[in-house]
Design goal:
Layout (H helix, E strand, L loop, with lengths): L9 E2 L4 E6 L5 E4 L2 E5 L3 E6 L8 E6 L4 E13 L2 E7 L12
Antiparallel strand pairs: 1-4, 2-3, 2-6, 4-5, 5-8, 6-7, 7-8
Length: 98
């Protein structure tokens, strides 16, 4: 698979909370494991699948920072799902530290 990211991600292990609304209208939130991040996105491991193009809200637990992202990639890893999130272009200059 070719690398399509604009910025390379660095391994991370911070704490985040992710929330989204599913297609049936159900509100869901989880505290996933953070895998990697950059100023343009992050990779997380979730217990449930999120559909591509879903907009999610992200809150960093250490810094109380809130932003949004769009699901761009989903891969099943055993019983969990590796989710690739892309931040909107207006916050791409933000470098979230974990």
């Amino acid at each position: 698979m070719s690398e399509k990211r604009g910025k390379s991600r660095r391994p991370s292990s911070g704490k985040v909370r992710v929330a989204w609304v599913e297609q049936d209208g159900a509100y869901v939130q989880e505290k996933p494991n953070l895998v990697d991040c950059s100023s343009s996105g992050m990779g997380i491991l979730l217990n449930r699948r999120i559909e591509l193009q879903t907009r999610v809200g992200i809150k960093t637990l250490e810094h109380n920072h809130i932003t949004s992202a769009v699901v761009r990639h989903v891969t099943q890893k055993g019983l969990r799902f590796r989710i690739g999130l892309e931040f909107p272009s207006e916050v791409s200059g933000l470098d979230i530290k974990f």
